[in-house]
Write a structure and sequence with these properties.
10 strands; alpha+beta; 6 helices; Alpha-Beta Plaits; about 45% helix
Length: about 260
């Protein structure tokens, strides 16, 4: 920052007039002088601009290198998954828009509202794990004969399924919900405090093709499990039935917002 000196004291014209100053000449005030930038300020500004440009180039290069390492068929799979997910979101938007329009134009608003509330309760019950569910999906068998898998492998598998649009998941005898957590204790893996066997079956309801492609992407969930010494077997049954129900606890801190 430039060193700016305090303005000089204004001369008292009543007691300290100089004979050389013309009575009609306006005295020059010291603080009207322009403050010129110091060379160090200019240098700091140039360095900041160069640093910002370097960070942008590095971030763009990192993202490009991440996708450049994938094969063409892997990129096609990723594009298909994004397309399918985008279509699913578009369908949800269209359904919600139609529901709103029906509520606005229906002659029997009370009956329509009840039907919408019942449908919403069923959907939320399945997504929250309070209700059993059935539908198309995958049956995934995972074995760990060398006891080399950790909870990280299961977390990655669950995240891949969610990214592929899975709607309900059961691991062994337990329902997986938004608050579920995989943890390690020694060489054992737990789900919400429940010990999981080393020969384990996952049930996932969703689009089988989308989930299968997502799990087999190089560097994804299945390749990581195999690289760690585990075995994976995938079956696409005609109907996946999830019977486990989650034991939901009321929230301790979150409260609904008053309307």
């Amino acid at each position: 920052m430039a060193n700016i000196t305090a303005p000089d004291a204004i001369p008292d014209t009543k007691h300290d007039e100089t004979p050389d100053q013309s009575p009609n000449e306006v005295p020059r005030r010291p603080w009207t002088r322009a403050v010129k930038p110091v060379r160090s300020q200019v240098l700091v500004g140039v360095l900041c601009a160069l640093l910002g440009f370097a960070l942008v180039v590095q971030v763009r290069g990192t993202g490009a290198n991440q996708f450049a390492a994938l094969r063409q068929e892997d990129l096609v799979r990723l594009l298909e998954e994004l397309t399918v997910r985008g279509n699913q979101l578009d369908a949800e938007v269209a359904q919600l828009t139609a529901t709103r329009q029906e509520l606005a134009t229906s002659s029997d608003l009370a009956q329509t509202a009840r039907e919408v509330a019942e449908q919403r309760a069923i959907v939320e019950g399945i997504l929250s794990g309070r209700l059993p569910a059935q539908g198309p999906g995958l049956e995934i068998g995972i074995s760990d004969p060398t006891l080399s898998l950790t909870s990280v492998a299961f977390v990655n598998l669950l995240e891949e399924l969610r990214n592929a649009g899975v709607e309900a998941v059961q691991v062994g005898d337990y329902r997986v919900v938004t608050t579920s957590a995989f943890t390690d204790l020694g060489r054992e893996i737990y789900l919400d405090g429940n010990l999981l066997p080393r020969d384990l079956v996952w049930l996932a309801i969703g689009d089988p093709a989308t989930m299968g492609r997502a799990l087999e992407i190089p560097g994804g969930a299945f390749p990581q499990i195999r690289a760690a010494g585990g075995d994976v077997e995938v079956i696409e049954p005609e109907l996946v039935e999830i019977t486990a129900i989650a034991d939901l606890r009321p929230p301790q801190f979150a409260m609904p917002v008053a309307e």
